Amino acid sequence: MLNTQDGLDVYKRLVRYYYNGFLNFVLNDEDISALTWSKQQELLQSIVHCSLIKKYPVNNEFSRLYFKKLISCLEKAGQEVHDELYIGLCNIMNNTSDDNLFRYRHHIIGNDFNNIITIKETKNMVVNGTTGMKTWEAAFMLVDWALCNQGVFRDKTVFELGSGVGFTGIVISKFCKPREMILSDCHDDVLKMISDNIEINFPNMTVKEVNNCKSFVNEKHCLGTMNLDWNNDNNMENIALKKPPDIIIGADIVYDPSLLLPLCNVIQDFLQSNNNIEIYIASVIRNEATFETFLSILDTKGLTYHKLQQEESVFVEWDNTIQRCLLKIKMLS
């Protein structure tokens, strides 16, 4: 069990599983015994009657499998099953509308159920030629590291490369208190998804749009979205920033061999505009040759790096058994 689950009773763990779309849970005898009628009622309040879930529902097929598995666990152990669990399963099974391409996932930060980030994303790995419309594992790793090192980002301007659905930038903006956060991508559908997710998590922001850039502003936060194509030779001219950012981040952006050189060019361009920029890149290493090529290109660009350690999850769950790397990159002195 991951650290974020330590100390949570079975009710809270089951809520977390439901919000995160996690079905591979196991309930032991102690868990089943703890799921009394009143605890099941609490669970129902959090996953059926919750206003957040009603507004941003989880995937219908997942809900069906979740309720079915939970009821089966209770029945096999001879535990009394709350009537509303059966009713909930029947309602889900009677819902004949097809699940659309997108779903909502609700990420509880730490063990505080008042701190929830809701993300709209796709169920598929690739949509309309882009992989940027779902949250990938390195994003959770980078977010967890950022939450453990909030002072790095406080009062800074942070620029994210390849923001995808915006999970990383939204969490850092909400909890690490940067002065400004800019989330970038090169795909219009992805940028629209980022904007949707900003609006979900910061519902009272004022929105402005200038030259394909959107700004979301309130008294505490300033988030922007920006189209940035790494293959464009005039990237730095197209980045509408008053001054270079203090920090650049990226999660799961080192995977396509054809994009490694353009990515390193962008990093180099930023550092040439301000060689004090701190750059943090989190990667799941799916192909060692691809990752080594990335490191080699950094070397040829006169960039140095060192690996940061994040051994286990603290605030956000991620798989610490995967091969991964979190790099801090800078320009050689």
Automatic annotation (TrEMBL):
It comes from the Eukaryota. One of its GO terms (cellular component) is protein-containing complex. Coiled coil: none annotated. Transmembrane segments: none annotated. InterPro entries: FAM86_N, Methyltransf_16, SAM-dependent_MTases_sf. Residues 41-91 form the FAM86 N-terminal domain. Keywords: Transferase. This is Protein-lysine N-methyltransferase EEF2KMT isoform X1. The gene is LOC113517481.
